[in-house]
């Protein structure tokens, strides 16, 4: 079947279709990409800050745990002390003798740049 074109048509001629994007579409797409990248950057900064805080807290817990193990291996006598460690970690420990031949070990660790965080570990051991 052949189509024939007529010179006279009741329909108006169709406008030619343009291929590509308009300037407004490109600007909207660019704005969306920019917002996505900025939110990704913000999330990355939060994750880095949180990871640093977790590392400092883990170092403080390790320091307190090591101190309690050291005190548990020592003699059964009362005592106390303090130390300043790396990364702004300060600890204070004491050993108290309580009735029934038991000693109570306590280690308090203050850590962080603003020293607003603290961990306290306690345990009781027989003499």
CATH topology: Pantoate--beta-alanine Ligase, Chain: A,domain 2
Shape, per Cα inertia axes: rod-shaped
How many domains make up the 3D coordinates? 1
CATH C-level name: Alpha Beta
Q: Structural class per helix/strand content?
A: alpha+beta
User: N-to-C terminal Cα separation, in Å?
Assistant: 107 Å
* Strand line-up across the major sheet: 1-2-3-4
Give the ordered list of helices and strands.
Answer: HEEEE
Helical fraction equals 40-55%
Task: Specify Rg, calculated over alpha carbons.
Answer: 36 Å
Per DSSP E runs of 2 or more residues, the count of β-strands stands at 4
Low-confidence stretches: none
Q: Descriptors for this entry?
A:
127 residues; alpha+beta; Pantoate--beta-alanine Ligase, Chain: A,domain 2; four-stranded antiparallel sheet; 4 strands
Q: Can you describe what's shown?
A:
This protein has 127 residues and is an alpha+beta fold. The chain has one domain: Pantoate--beta-alanine Ligase, Chain: A,domain 2 (2-Layer Sandwich). It is 40% helix and 29% strand. It has 1 helix and 4 strands, in the order αββββ. It has a 4-stranded antiparallel sheet, covered by helices on one side. The longest helix is centred in the middle third of the chain and has 51 residues. The protein is rod-shaped and about 110 Å long. It starts with 22 loop residues before the first helix and ends with a strand. The mean pLDDT is 88.
């Amino acid at each position: 079947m052949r189509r024939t074109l007529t010179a006279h048509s009741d329909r108006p001629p169709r406008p030619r279709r343009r291929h590509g994007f308009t300037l407004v579409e490109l600007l909207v797409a660019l704005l969306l990409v920019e917002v996505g990248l900025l939110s990704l950057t913000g999330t990355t900064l939060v994750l880095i800050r949180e990871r640093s805080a977790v590392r400092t807290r883990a170092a403080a817990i390790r320091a307190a745990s090591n101190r309690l193990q050291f005190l548990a291996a020592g003699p059964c006598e009362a005592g106390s002390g303090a130390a300043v460690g790396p990364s702004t970690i300060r600890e204070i420990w004491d050993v108290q003798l309580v009735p029934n031949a038991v000693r109570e070990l306590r280690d308090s660790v203050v850590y962080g740049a603003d020293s607003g965080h603290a961990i306290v570990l306690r345990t009781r051991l027989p003499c």
